[in-house]
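Lab notebook, bench 4. Still working through the backlog of constructs that have no structural model yet. Next entry is a single chain of 282 residues. Request: give me the structure tokens for it.
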Amino acid sequence: MMKLPAYAAALMPSVLIASLSGTFGASAAQAAEFRGLPSVNMEATVKAAQIDPRRPDDTLTPGAKAGVLLVEQALRDRKLLDAKWVDGYFGTTTVAAYGKYQKSLGLSGLDANGLPGKMSLSKLGAGRFKVTGVLDPGPRVSLGRFVVNSRTRDMLAEAKRLFKRDLKLDQGSYNPGGDPTSAGTHDGGGVVDISVKGMSAADRTAAVRALRLAGFAAWVRNPEQDDWPWHIHAVAISDTSLSGQAQHQVGDYYLGLNGLAGRAPDDGPKVTIRTWEERRRR
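Model written out:
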């Protein structure tokens, strides 16, 4: 092994300390800068992106304004949103602008659905804001012959626990074109149909209540509403892989409607609306 000259060996500790100090100093400065950034609460922002486009007025979603403004300002600075729409209201124009931003990242399909996703929101906020309350639908998994994501699977498990009976799926998620009567709601993640075979009217209501308590927008569907058999339709609130149609159903649920095209009053059991994440924190 080559031996360093005495003067070089003497210099090494100070060079190493200076190098490490510079590295740690830069990291500390970056950490301090990050801590000083404003926050965008992803949970509140995604909630607004589902509800605001369905509102009949410009009422803001509680707790979302500050984060939505930061997102809209970032979209404005990227020339994707006119300044007049930077108002804290995540309406259809902001959803469309966010979808364009997602496509600019090379995303497509469900990853460019206009709902802020974990990766796209973090990229949008680089140097501008930090993201808290991160949402992630998780990977796709199988439930028997149907596909859902891991978040939906966990929500269904909680609903079954509350219902104290099994909930058998008639249709899963990520099923584009699988059922023409679903109007595209099952094209993305977070949406399932549940069999009501052998359930009484009281059982059906109890099942919907359990699903709602677990964080789903859920309703009993009957043949008088459309060309379908009796079943329960459930949409996982704030699943960032929801199709556009499923996003609308969640927004309508928050507004006291039944999630159908006619936008009639909600006909399900009344519960305090909470997302899966909000329930887990209780």
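Notes after review: Confidence is low (pLDDT under 50) at residues 1-18. Strands lie at 39-41, 130-132, 140-143, 146-149, 169-171, 191-194, 216-221, 231-236. Flag for follow-up if needed.
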